Amino acid sequence: MPPRSRLHRLAGLLIASLALLLAACGEPPADPLRVGSNVWPGYEPLYLARELGAYDRAAVHLVELPSATQVMHQLRSGNLEAGCLTLDEAIGQIARGLDLQVVLVMDFSSGADVLLARPPIETLAQLRGKRIGVEQTGTGAILLDGALRAAGLEPGEVKLEYLPVDQHEQAWRDHRVDAVVTFEPVMSRLLADGARILFDSSRIPGRIVDVLVVTRRAAETRGPELRHLLAGYFRAREVMRHDPERANRLMAPRLRVSPDAVPALFEGIVLPDLAANRRLLGGRPAPLEHTAQELARLMAANRLLTVVPDLAGLTRDDFLPGQP
Amino acid sequence: MKPVRTFDLRLWLPLLVALILLGNYAAWSLLQYRHLGDEVRQQQMHVWQENLARLQQAVSQKLLAGDIGGAEELLTSYGTDPGVVAIAVIDEQDRVLFANRFAWKGRPAAETLPGFRPDLARQVRQHDRRLSPRIEQQHLRAYYPVALATRPGQIRPSREGLLYLDYDLQPALANIARTLWRDARLLLVLTLASLGLILLVLNRLVTRPLQRLGEHSQRLADNDFRPAPVHGRGELGRLAEAFNRMARQLQQQIREREEREQHLDRTLESIGDAVIATDARGRITRLNPVAEQLTGWTAREALGQPIESVFVIHNARTGETIPNPVETVLETGRIVELANDTTLVARDGSQYQIADSAAPIRSEQGIEGVILVFHDVSEAYRVREERRIAAIALETSNAMLITDAEGAILRCNPGFTRLTGFTEAELAGQGIDDLLDTVPAEGAFCDAFTRRLEDTGDWRGATTVRDRQGHRLHVWLNITAVRDDAGQITHFVASLSDLSALEEARQALQASRDKYQTLLDSLHDGVFLIHEGRYVDGNTKLFEILGHPREAVIGHSPGEFSPTIQRDGTPSIERARDLVQAVLAGRPVMIEWTVQRPDDSLLDVEISAVRIDLEGRPHVLGTVRDITERKQAERERQALTAQLQAALEEIRKKEELLRLATRAAGIGTWEWDIRGERVIWSDGVAEIFGVEPGRFDETYAAYDALIHEDDRETVEAAIRLALEDDAPYRVEHRIRRPDGSVRWLTCQGEVERDSDGTPVRMYGTVVDVTEHKQAQAEIERLAYFDPLTGLANRRLLLDRLQQAISHARRDDHTGALLFIDLDRFKLLNDSLGHRAGDTLLQKIARRLTGVVREEDTVARLGGDEFVIMLPFLDADPETAARQAHRIAEKVRHALSGSYTLDAHRFHITASLGIALFPGDGHDAESLLNHADVAMYQAKSNGRDTIAYYHASLQAVADARLAMEEDLRHALQQDELDLHYQLQVDEQGRPVAVEALLRWQHPERGNVPPNDFIPVAEETGLILPIGDWVLKTACRQLRKWQADGRHDHIAVSVNVSPIQFRHPRFVAGVEATLAETGIEPARLTLEITEGMLIDDLSDTAQKLRELKALGLRLSIDDFGTGYSSLYYLKHLPLDELKIDRAYVQDITEDRNDAAIVETILAMARHLGLEVVAEGVETDEQARFLRDNGCHRYQGYLYARPRPAADCFASLEDGD
Lengths: 324, 1214
Description:
The structure holds 2 protein chains of 2 kinds. Chain A is α/β, with parallel strands linked by helices. Chain A folds into 2 domains: 33-108 and 209-301, D-Maltodextrin-Binding Protein, domain 2 (3-Layer(aba) Sandwich), CATH 3.40.190; 114-203, 3-Layer(aba) Sandwich (D-Maltodextrin-Binding Protein, domain 2). Chain A is built from 13 helices and 11 strands. In chain A, the strands form 2 sheets. Chain A has a 6-stranded mixed sheet with strand order 2-1-3-10-4-11, with helices on both faces. A 5-stranded mixed sheet of chain A has the order 7-6-8-5-9, sandwiched between helices. The longest helix of chain A is centred in the first third of the chain and has 23 residues, at 3-25. Chain A starts with a helix and ends in a 23-residue tail after the last helix. By secondary structure, chain B is α+β, with helices and mostly antiparallel strands. Chain B has 41 helices and 44 strands. In chain B, strands 35, 36, 37, 38, 39, 40, 41, 42, 43 and 44 form a 10-stranded mixed sheet that branches. In chain B, strands 6, 7, 8, 9, 10, 11 and 12 form a 7-stranded antiparallel sheet that branches. In chain B, strands 2-1-5-4-3 form a 5-stranded antiparallel sheet, with helices on both faces. Chain B is extended and about 170 Å long. In chain B, 28% of the residues are buried. Chains A and B meet through helix 1, strand 2 and helix 3 of A and helix 2, helix 5 and helix 28 of B.
């Protein structure tokens, strides 16, 4: 090699390394992305991904919390960068000033949320003037709204009793309500007691949604970890599809059931796949944003929100696997 | 002076600097890392001491207050720290109460919690003293006691738990390392920058001058003596000056040497001899022009070549190579003179005789090279050589003459004198033709002879001469001319050979040949002679056998007269070749051969052959004998032998088969010598026992050990019975084989007794009956259970039902039979495939069994029909009916959840019929039948319902059956017809018609569609009917299009859900469109709202496909089902039809009016057309028009009429 060109190359190399190293000096020391959730089958693929070894410990830290309230609390106090919430919970938090973005749709309720009625009530129309127990949550509001629309009833034509879910069964047994908007495990117990399903969430597909939210700050600075998180999630979904036995075995301990009972837990919900997620989260405005806006209006109408927050730019699809 | 090794400064200097800098930093970083690491550990220890103390107290308080949830919330919130591997509260049995991982709950801590040590936990509990965080392998671990519960009045907790922490310090330490690395990068940047600087300076001060000097010395080597472009006072500048001085001196010396060389060259060129000089390795350094001429090499080409490639010499007489003189000189150091007869071969192949000498060139160092001097002596050599040859020629024993050009004899040799008696002196001066004796000499021969000689100079031929005595001699005369350089004949040389003896020999040979031929031809066998694979001779018999004349055989190979393949399967040509070779190799051969004759008949022959050498060349001599008859006999004998062999083989095979069959059947035999206490087992037994034959102890104990523990007594009892009571021994029992598998055996045997009746011996057989047993069990299972779902089958159900009926009658209680049929299962089965259908049935079976009690029976009758038998209900039939209804409701609920199959989700509903017993039927069959009837009632009440059996239902069921039967014939009997009802616009102009189905039954009269459509849907008849409707409507449409008056009219056709769900529906529509050739945009398909929600994904797909065909799509009876904006928005619809129920009350009922307004507003918004159905009054029409509905259908405008006059009413009205 002529000495001159070797020198040039050496100099080029030096300059390139200088640039690289100077650029690297700006990056902060990375802590793992902290993602919190309570136990819900729809969130389980994240934990399955952890069991499958899909997550680098330095990049993703899953935090198991006993309730969604805790998830929201820790998100607000900055102890989590991401969390699994129902869409209405997420909207509630946004309305309270927490700047969240939806990066993944985890599941839809499709039959998991139900309106149960006591015999002799047999049709939705017969609910007119009856007492209906319902949680004062977005989910409760959506399902009730769907049921009333199907029945052709106005909210004013029924008597609403706002009850947290742990009081549904007692209220039913005390005959304080004629119908109740609820979900598992209360649903099974009331069915065994003779209740009838008049309406369920499979009739309003895509309305009751669980999502993965991240703080806007995390969405802007933690791109690689978020992509890692979602890649692991979809890898777990692949395993659930192709090797359900293995997936059930790995998910069973957290769900606290035997592996055989795991599929039953997924019966009332639909987990949208990658393509569905792209559809729901992509575009401006994204379909999910539209759903969220409708939901926000509904929540405001049910006094679950005092103000309707601005949800423009709620979703991001750029962390989904396979995105440029 | 010792040489100094140099290194690349540009590499080593910066590298050294970099290494020193980096080494220093690495050492500093290591220290820093350890220091900061210690700090982090201390800090985390303090943090967690505080955290845990707080947590210990708070958790205890919450637990004591019974607020487990609160305690868990508190604990799990610590899980957000990525370093926390485990934080858990453990109960007194070391089970996890709650932790940061839910999966650990309730499981032993030792199995789940990482790093948990039960011994430490025990210690903490015993002393009620915490174990503060301590570091174990980069983990902080701590155990704190917590109170789980306290008995009232006691201070010490009654249940003592533990708070456990496992904290991974690795992430924190990794963070330190990352920070240090980040700082290190800054330093690296600085290091790299200084390296760059050093490199630049080095390059300027050292490398470039050195490079220039290097380039300069390279130029010196190429004789460029310009001064080096380096100057200045530096060390390198002075070095360059010295360099330049040296170059000038060198230039001077070279010039002087060149002059000397030129002088030498001129000297060599003027020498007359060839001169070649070489160096000490024999490579040519010089070559003068004479040498160039002789060797054919130019000096330029030859320089540097090894001497032996240029100076090629050999002995002219022998052709042998002569050692190259140069090499000899180099070896010996002495002058070498070449021997005579040296020929030099020039480069172009011409040869020269040369004389040469080679001498060493000596200097102080010894021999520096060789100088080779030579000249051409070819001419002298040639003269000498000719003389020598002539002398030798005349000395030969042959008779020789030499004449001059005119044929006058100059010389003759002693050989000639011997032959003819003439001496040289007598002949001198005579012409050669004077010697020629023959008559021809006087005439034509002589002329030809002379002419030939004159033309060519040569003559050869047999002729006769007279000797001195006048005898005639037969000679072979050979005359050759000798020419000079100009080609002129100077002499003739004649040689004569005596042919008299040869002629005698020839005559003798001919005689002997004739004798030989006669001998051969007289032989009975054919004789042949083969040379080089071809016949060269043969006798008459041979040609007779081959069937070809002699001339067709000689010169051809034996293979050509044979069939392609010999009887032994080898190709004839190949075999013949092999045989000839074998014979030639010296092996006499005797073989059988088949010959093919010209008439294609085959002839078997026997050939024997040996090798003989004739005229020094190997030949094959052989005889051929015809053996056709002998062969025929032989073949017959062989065929017989083969038949016998085959028969024997068959027998052997059958015997083998029998042996295998016995083994496969698992039969073994045994013999028990009771007194000798020895049992002899056959190999079959060993195989059954799963032990190796011969390795099984020949004792009863060995057998006893194999017997299944539960069967041991049975076997012993059977043996005892046989021995004591002389009963035949037969017992069925299990054994456990050494490999652990359990087999069922049947053992049979007899006892042999001596004269006293004492048992002496037992013998018998053992058979493995395991498979038989399993098959029996399987048959039993198949007989009573449904193989798909594992539920009871019809047979078992009927059995149990019969029992239950008698039982109920006897004990005076009531039972019930629930007949369950899945709604639309068949449709699902068709569209999803039978495999999915089977899976669904299994899911349903599981749900059904989950609902009922132990004593109830769930059965599957086949298809999607299930039956549940509830045998024990209340005695009072009414109460029992209510109980049955409640259970039926439960069943319905259990079944109506959603199902996921192959990623499809859908709902299933079921219709249930209830029959009570013994009230509703006395025997199982009729009861089942009645439950079935009730189920049908439930179906026709609208699916997803429950119905009781009632006697009147039977009548309905019967009527229904009759209707079904009639409907089947209706299509064939042409009883179906289409009527058309107009749809008009605001001006009352017809825009479309709806096709409506009519059934004119010969006895029942006009049957309303509401009566027969459900039956058609249930029985699947709706498919052919729907098909007929679509085709008929399309044909009518084509007629209208053709007649020109109604070519703008569109036709709406109703589609039944069953029809729509059929997988071939779209294809069917497409085919009808193609067949009738109508414009698709004129055809509207009406589907009901309910179909949209039933299976949205399938519906959407089909609608899109239909839309793609160009059809219009309409939603019929809009407003009656559950309407979702979502569907309307996302499906490719064109039209809504407002249900007549709304339109009817539009003017009275404000609700209905509001609904219609909403529908219209929404349709406008979505761009859908709206048709109002059932418009009967002007008020209704006005209301609709005012609210933006522009199309109407109803009695106000037209009733449904046959196609021929459906437009008539309007025309009447006009």
